[in-house]
Amino acid sequence: MIRSELVQKIASENSDLRIEEVERIVDAFFDSIVDQLAAGGRVELRGFGAFSTRARESRTGRNPRTGAAVDVKAKNVPYFKPGKEMRERLNG
């Protein structure tokens, strides 16, 4: 499912909301998650899962085309851990 499909699904299930309102709600939801993660926080949605960040150390990588060594800087990457309810639904 892509973002536009999510907006359409929510709009179809909530006929009292215009599509523009649903888009603003979805944007606000995703922006709130990103803002919290950027601030070093964690977002937990009970039954769904938890978003957090993990630090990756700097390392020496390889350019796949040339094979040359490339320095990769340290960075934070997003991490998602599914909740118990989601895991149970996925595994029947």
Structure description:
By secondary structure, this protein is of the alpha+beta class. The protein is 41% helix and 29% strand. Strands 1-2-5 form a 3-stranded antiparallel beta sheet. Strands 3-4 form a two-stranded antiparallel ribbon. Helix 1 crosses helix 2. The protein is elongated. The two termini are 21 Å apart. The mean pLDDT is 95.
Q: What is the topology?
A:
Blueprint: H1 3-13, H2 19-38, E1 43-45, E2 49-56, E3 59-62, E4 69-72, E5 75-82, H3 84-90
Antiparallel strand pairs: 1-2, 2-5, 3-4
Helix pairs in contact: 1-2
Order of H and E elements? HHEEEEEH
Calculate the terminal CA-CA distance, rounded to whole Å: 21 Å
Counting helices, strands and paired strands, the structural category is alpha+beta
Helix content: 40-55%
Instruction: Provide the β-strand percentage band.
Output: 25-35%
Radius of gyration: 19 Å
Average pLDDT works out at 95
* Overall outline: elongated
Largest sheet, strands/sense/barrel: 3 strands, antiparallel
Strands, total number: 5
Low-confidence stretches: none
> Could you give the order of strands across the largest sheet?
1-2-5
Quick description:
With 92 residues, this protein is α+β, with helices and mostly antiparallel strands.
Question: What brief labels describe this structure?
Answer:
5 strands, alpha+beta, 3-stranded antiparallel beta sheet, two-stranded antiparallel ribbon, 92 residues, single chain
